[in-house]
Amino acid sequence: MNIVIFFLGAISLALPSQGDLILYKQPQYVNLSAQAWADPTTALAADETQLVFWRMGSKIMPADWDLSALTGVAVPKAAFNTTQRGVPHASTEQAGELTAVQDEGSMGASTSSTVQYYNGTFGAYLNTYLSPPIQGNLATLIISNDWSSPVHVWARSGAGVRVTLSLAVPQASKAPSSAIYVTTSFGLHHYTGSGSDAFVWYETSIFDLDRAQSEWVNADTISKQAIIHGVLNGPGNSRYHTQTPGSSNASSQVFPTAGRFQFSVCASHLVTGLTDVHTRMPSFNLPLDAAGWAITHINIELEALAGAQAGYHVSDLTVESIDQCQ
């Protein structure tokens, strides 16, 4: 997890009881000239989808090549320059063991790690052989949204938040010691008095290549904030969310056909996660009252150590507040 955290003030959005309410819906169009960033150092525009490259350099450029076999998103050649952005290839010395890349298809292209946004679908191709992390040990491609006002979905008794998305991972490979994975992550702030006094990442795993997946709490290596990490392992199998019956499960192998994922986070799940953090890492001293916590950020990230590559695409990402969360 590697988003720059911006603490928000006391102004917040307390949701009235009015049935399910859409908080975010993935748009049909994103202006990459204004909404794609490399290592941003200031807060990005709120209430607007943003695409972010983390720790792969400060330069991004139009990507004039076909990524469809890598991400599953087929963009017409005439639209390459307006719908695709990527980072330039690293030098041969930086790229390292290029021969380990299997069918990555981009050695003759203008960019290595690249994002796409076409007809309501976000595609991302991350290649840490060709664009390794320039600081730390992780590189990340993100689609995200920040809310201009904190959303207190757990302030009402019985309420919660539901996430729905379609996602596919057509191809991926990695060195034995590497890792590459996809998660959804909420950024949650706790509010008392005049502002925020605590933060936690609340994430859910969807894909983790060739690695067994389990639920845990830990400290993020980048932001140093606490993480509550759930896995979509089937309805009834998580401490940190309720997976909707019929939802696709998390995978440790590629899946070219998009799965439909849906889960809800109720107040009881949040309190369980916060309690687990308090038990394992009491120094974080996170407040345990669900009503004081609010959603300020969501992202879906494709992240990897050096020596890995994968492509994926996501569409129909929707975040809703729900009155009846179970």
Which features characterize this protein?
single chain; mainly beta; globular; 44% strand; nine-stranded mixed beta sheet
Secondary structure elements and pairings:
Elements (H helix, E strand, L loop, with lengths): L12 E2 L6 E5 L6 H4 E3 L11 E5 L6 E2 L5 H4 L8 H4 E5 L3 H4 L15 E8 L2 E7 L11 E14 L7 E15 L5 E13 L2 E14 L7 E4 L6 E6 L10 E2 L11 E12 H14 L12 E12 L3 E15 L4
Parallel strand pairs: 1-9, 3-4, 12-14
Antiparallel strand pairs: 2-18, 4-9, 5-6, 6-7, 7-8, 8-18, 9-17, 10-16, 10-18, 11-12, 11-17, 13-14, 15-16
Structure write-up:
There is one protein chain. The protein is mainly beta. Helices cover 9% and strands 44% of the residues. The protein is built from five helices and 18 strands. Strands 1, 3, 4, 9, 11, 12, 13, 14 and 17 form a nine-stranded mixed sheet that branches. Strands 2, 5, 6, 7, 8, 10, 15, 16 and 18 form a nine-stranded antiparallel sheet that branches. It is globular and about 50 Å long. The two termini are 27 Å apart.
What is the residue-averaged pLDDT?
90
H/I helix tally: 5
| Number of strand segments | 18
Amount of helix: under 10%
Proportion of beta-strand residues? 35-45%
Give the distance, in angstroms, between the N- and C-terminal Cα atoms. Answer: 27 Å
**Topology as a string of helices (H) and strands (E):** EEHEEEHHEHEEEEEEEEEEHEE
Write down the Rg: 19 Å
**Unreliable parts:** 2-12, 92-104
Structural class: mainly beta
Outline, from the CA principal axes?
Answer: globular
The major beta sheet can be summarized as: 9 strands, mixed
